[in-house]
Fold:
Amino acid sequence: QGKTFGRVELYNAVTGLSTVISEEEYTNTEESTNSTGRVLEAITTSNGLIYALGRTKTNGVYQMQIMVYNREGELQKTFPASAVTAFLGLENPLGFRMVGDYFALQQYSTPAMQLFKIEGETVVAVTEVLTDASISAGSWSQDKCPYFYWAEAPDYYNDETVALQEFSVLDTRNGSIRQCKVEIDSENPSLNGTGVGITNENGDLLLYMQPAFLDSEAQVYWVKRQTIDRLLGE
Structure:
């Protein structure tokens, strides 16, 4: 409520210098019909471009927009993202991960996640809303890793041990989605929770097994990028 001020800075890790690329003043009150300015809610990068997610209120309705900057911080274009508005509603976004023209958002107060694609100056949803999903983007460089990975959380009340790590892969080069399975060490029956971990710059995927009980040790499995390529090529 009231007035907020948003700033986006570009930090050069080589020189240690920061450059302000965007400053937005946003004024909004509950009784106002229209907001002034735009609130910046999330920012990410992909293929040398900077993407910011913003929100305005017009005629009492909140709308999301995407702003695209070049690597020098110069605004290239702004376009509406009604598909994001429909997904988030009045929720704040949790995370804004992008690979190529695809990006993922999660709702702040729930685990709900959805994948989107930018087509020209239009944003479309490419999956149904996924609940209890953990997601990992490969790299800010599509060439280094063109994949999104995600996994649905398991049923912790199921007595059956999870022997396979199941996860989904989106290949952002062609839009195909595949389900993959990796065999997990069956000698650890107490580990019946799963999750998608992180990826490195080469696109290798770290899968982790979350322990069902606090006194159990977590297990981490390293899936090489070449393995993902082979699975998707089969």
